[in-house]
């Protein structure tokens, strides 16, 4: 019997409108009565995912910003690893980012230099939103994650090795979607953060089941006793984890149906 269920959100637990479906909420609310813990593991900001968690009757552990922040069920911080300050200026400025939309996650806010309303559709249930600021005027508040958005995945695929060539000893990169390249401190991942949650609960890896769909879920799925892929999982994730079970689509609340059959 698994004692911890860990779910990615977009493309996995959330539906096609990036919302928690009614059936999903019903199934997740039934887990604590069976002695099963729940954790959300996402690239989203803590404030955002905490808002989503309030739709449930029992609060989950929260792994946010791809593992740069971890909070317990009472929203108390268990871990935080910001980007090294010496890398920030180069990650936020320069001609290599021309035409790329740059986003900054700090501990309590989301900052952009240019409004991009289309990004807000991911956050309708939580109400989380960015603030438009001048990055050159940022203070020393720690930054958990920088992410880049561009409609052409090839543009970001070309940008990733440039970033790693300059900062590879200090940062980790991953993709949450083909059009979103994420940069965190070296060693940060959902898998590393999952290890922290598991140890806080006194659980062994084989007592964990995890669900995911994107490259930023790779370490988490490898670190669980059982990893499960969505039917809509990225091809590169399927190729990296060819032996994992594949279930239905997030659009059909497949995680909830899988858990209901298992329970």
Count of DSSP E strands? Answer: 14
Shape: globular
Average of pLDDT: 96
Rounded Rg:
18 Å
Annotated CATH architecture of the largest domain: 3-Layer(aba) Sandwich
Number of helices: 9
Q: Report the CATH topology name of the largest domain.
A: Rossmann fold
Low-confidence stretches are: none
Distance between the termini: 9 Å
Specify the structural class. Answer: alpha/beta
Strand fraction: 15-25%
Helix content: 25-40%
- Briefly, what CATH class of the largest domain? Alpha Beta
**Largest sheet, spatial ordering of strands:** 5-4-3-2-1-12-13-14
Largest sheet: 8 strands, mixed
SSE order: EHHEHEEEHEEEEHEEHEHEHEH
Number of domains: 2
The CATH superfamily of the largest domain bears the name HAD superfamily/HAD-like
Can you tell me about this structure?
The protein is an alpha/beta fold and 263 residues long. The chain folds into two domains: 152 residues, 3-Layer(aba) Sandwich (Rossmann fold); 101 residues, Hypothetical Protein, Haloacid Dehalogenase-like Hydrolase, Chain: A, domain 2 (2-Layer Sandwich). Helices cover 29% and strands 24% of the residues. The protein contains nine helices and 14 strands. The strands form two sheets. Strands 5-4-3-2-1-12-13-14 form an eight-stranded mixed β-sheet, with helices on both faces. A six-stranded mixed β-sheet has the order 8-7-6-9-11-10, with helices on one face. Strand 3 and strand 4 form a beta hairpin.
């Amino acid at each position: 019997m698994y004692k911890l269920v860990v779910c990615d959100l977009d493309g996995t637990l959330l539906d096609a409108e990036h919302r928690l479906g009614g059936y999903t909420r019903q199934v997740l609310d039934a887990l604590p009565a069976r002695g099963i813990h729940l954790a959300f593991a996402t690239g989203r900001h803590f404030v955002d995912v905490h808002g989503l968690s309030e739709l449930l009757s029992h609060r989950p552990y929260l792994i946010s910003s791809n593992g740069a922040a971890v909070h317990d069920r009472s929203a108390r911080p268990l871990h935080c690893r910001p980007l090294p300050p010496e890398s920030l200026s180069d990650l936020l400025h320069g001609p290599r980012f021309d035409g790329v939309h740059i986003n900054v996650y700090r501990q309590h806010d989301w900052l952009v230099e240019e409004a991009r309303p289309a990004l807000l559709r991911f956050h309708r249930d939580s109400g989380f939103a960015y603030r438009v600021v001048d990055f050159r005027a940022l203070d020393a508040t720690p930054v958990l994650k920088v992410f880049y958005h561009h409609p052409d995945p090839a543009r970001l695929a070309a940008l990733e090795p440039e970033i790693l060539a300059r900062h590879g000893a200090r940062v980790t990169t991953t993709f949450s979607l083909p059009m979103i390249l994420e940069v965190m401190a070296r060693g940060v991942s959902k898998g590393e953060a999952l290890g922290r949650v598991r140890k806080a609960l006194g659980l062994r890896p084989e007592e964990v089941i995890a669900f995911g769909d994107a490259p930023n879920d790779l370490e988490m799925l490898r670190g669980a006793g059982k990893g499960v892929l969505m039917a809509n999982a990225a091809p590169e994730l399927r190729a990296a984890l060819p032996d994992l079970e594949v279930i239905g689509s997030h659009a059909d609340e497949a995680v909830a149906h899988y858990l209901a059959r298992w329970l």
